[in-house]
Amino acid sequence: MAKLHITTSINGEATEFLCEPHETLLDVLRNDLQMTGTKEGCGSGDCGACSVTVDGRLTCACLVLGVEAAGREIGTIEGIGSSDKLSVIQEKFLEHAALQCGICTPGLVVSTQALLEQNPNPTEAEARYFLAGNLCRCTGYDKIIRAVLDAAATMRGAA
Amino acid sequence: MSEAREFKYIGQSTIRPDGFDKVTGRANYGADLSLPGMIWGKILRSPHAHAIIKRLDTSRAEAFPGVLAVATHSDFPSVTDQAIESGEGSLTLLDLARNVLAKDKVLYHGHAIVAIAAKTSAIAEQALALIDIEYEVLKPVMDVREAMAAGAPILHPDMFTQGLAEKPTTASNVATRLEYKMGDIEAGFKDADVVVEREFYTPTAHQGYIEPHACTVRFEKDGQSMIWCSTQGHFDVRASTAKLLAMDLGKLKVIASEIGGGFGGKTTVYLEPVALILSRKSGRPVKMIMDRDEVFKATGPGSATRSWVKIGARKDGTITAMQGRLAYEAGAFKGSPVMMGCMTAFTPYAVSNMYIEGFDVVVNKAKVAAYRAPGAPQAEFAVEMLVNELAVKLDRDPIDLRLQNAAQEGTQTIYGPKFKRVGLVECLEAARDSKHYQQALAANQGRGVAAGFWFNVGGQSSVHINMNPDGTGTIVEGSPDIGGSRASMQMMAAEAMGIEPGRLKPIIGDTENVAFSAGTGGSRTTFATGMAVIEAAEDVVAQMKQRAASMWNVTAEQVEWVDGVALNTAGEDRLSLAEICAGADRTGGQISGRGNINARGAGPSFAVHLCDVEVDKDTGKVDVVRYTAVQDAGKAIHPKYVEGQYQGGAVQGIGWALNEEYIYSADGLLENAGFLDYRIPVASDLPMIDAIIVEVPNNFHPYGVRGVGESGIIPPLAAVGYAVENAIGVPVTDLPLSPPRVFNLIQGKG
Amino acid sequence: MARVTFSSTQQQFTVDAECEVDAGNYRELIAAITSRYPALDRAELLQMAVAIDGEIIHEPLLELVDSDSEIHFFHFIAGG
Question: Complex ipTM, two decimals?
């Protein structure tokens, strides 16, 4: 089948790519655009490792087709923080040792950013439920939640 | 070697040196490497749990446009049967080859049969459907009772049980029988006033790492090959692959990518030898990534087990006898961790009379691999449930009863040696004195206490530290970093050299640029690789002192090294490390230190957990409302990462106790091969996990370190299991305690 | 005399659970054991782990053995 030519915007940057109709956005990011920061853990939307935003909405990239990115704004881990400074969320994850193997971390950072944009002052329960779609096998979630709540407090303090 | 001492850098929770890469997505894992000209490999897997392959014809698949190579078992050169250390004890080479690609027979749902490499993974998948294959389906054997029963279908006609008094003449599904004993078990029970016994069941559970197995490989015409893969042990990958493919070790370079979880499941090979065959046959680099369902179906979960345990004690609380029988599922090929179950089960207790029997049993399920303290969680579940029952019968506090019988320095173990200094008593006391233990329980709540023991291992580690002219340096070590260990390496080297940790960059070398290092597992890395790092750092310091001595024209003995500075004791001179490095090319060249060791003296780590649950009697749902994990770290190099190990192990154990299990159809097909239905704990399932670090130093390590990675998964099964029993007032025998099972127990239908 | 305790699988071949051996180092120990118990496979014996005076040693070939050493044989423990 012939590839389709798609024009989109990723992390604020105009981007084009060719993809087959069956390719997911995750396939496109990782294989066609070499943006391997977004990880594949399951391919079926159950683990959250591929969390991205599509027009600001938190989504699993494995559940979106590459062609659906046309004309939309895609947000990935590569767009969080800048080339010389980590975001508060990223810093807090490191400070709290909220990662061990780190494979779930990009997805969690993207999801946490989405959480705090929606709810700058989440309770522990609210944070846990919002992030329930991001699986972590290493940490038991304790330090992740602490990092998230601390990031929220810091961002509120700075606001 | 290590009394309670003040450390300059050890014991702080520094920011890990690879942290920036990990939180930005820059870190490269197994699936993240692409090479020019790369093609994709996919595997045809058995749709049956047990079948003979009657006919296999790959010609239509090979002819499909875009397909560049096909591999089957016949592509393995003829290899002799030798035991290989692939991180999970001895696994014969023939078994490994047959597991990686089936020969003549398929032995579990998902067993790999044929691999295809094509220009895209979609083409490879389409070509799999063109493979002509005919099976003679056989009756599968799906649990130990079935497998051990007379007349059971036999998986391997050449399997005769080892370890029996008389060598058997008929084939069996029991690969091995073991026994361990101490004292006089019959006398021990005669001496008992109270006896408790019960049978237990634990299900097949997967390590559940979020990153699927993945590799990118390249086989070149001159025989030089490269494997990039996600692994806990790249030297083991090299050894296994070279043996399977009859290659020289020196021609096979293995690079360990960052690893997205392993927990023992990535200590063996599945894709790598297959990918290399495809690369050799196609002349192209090959990438292979497992889908999530392949991970569940065809990698190595932890053994399902059936156990029986009996414990006797006097009225005064002295345990006089401990006896058990453990039957562990090995999966399709022999080699479950039943031996380690037998060795660890009773080991937290100082009891004179012990007897335990173990059976390694094959069944038509995936060949098991190591899963965090392999064999121990299942056995300890049974023992700790019964010790809690015993406490009730003796009207004793469960921690107090354990303190009375706790293993200590000098306690004789069932497997031979007597303990050196260990920290079980300290852990029990910390649990007893914790805030958690003082909390009263509310309605529908229950509490469970449980202990656990793991030996921890030492083994080979090699490190070199290369200094730069500006006084910075690189620590080159060979232990893939699963959990942040490179931060600890940085700190241990800094401590030994007396300089800021940030001046040293730890990296993990590949099999060509770092000397041999055993895999990351067995809770060995901070201990053994740490020791090698310290030795290399001390080598650097010794050389620094030598250079300073030569510059001052004194002897090395007259030079003292304090906080990264060389001091001339025979005069006033001083030189910093950076200054010595700056002048190093004029005193003998830049300095490089070395530590190549086979570490001994690994200190065991005891753990004690407390769990409070609340049970919804209408639905059987169990919520963990409070959890405390206490464990002896010897000396916590990086306290937050040590806590992280305790918390991670606890949550894997909670998942195993409450909801994780492999669910098979009547035909032996795996029905829940995905994260939706193989339900591991998610953030909303859990409270904060209190982690209490106890430090009883291990005198064999310069800083007192004990490995901590594994013990934390051992207590949770009984801590949770008994908490449920305590809450509902009904004995618990089978895991997981998922809502239907708990509901039935409450209803009296359990 | 060093006291040697055999693993449960070894005991199938030795019958004895323990024995006493006169040896100054590990090689002498192995030689003494295999001559006393010819059914024990020397090659397999050299593959096993051993605890000498309570310390688990995976590569014991160069070890010295004392007159009151306690030796225990067992298979390699593997972790996860």
Answer: 0.98
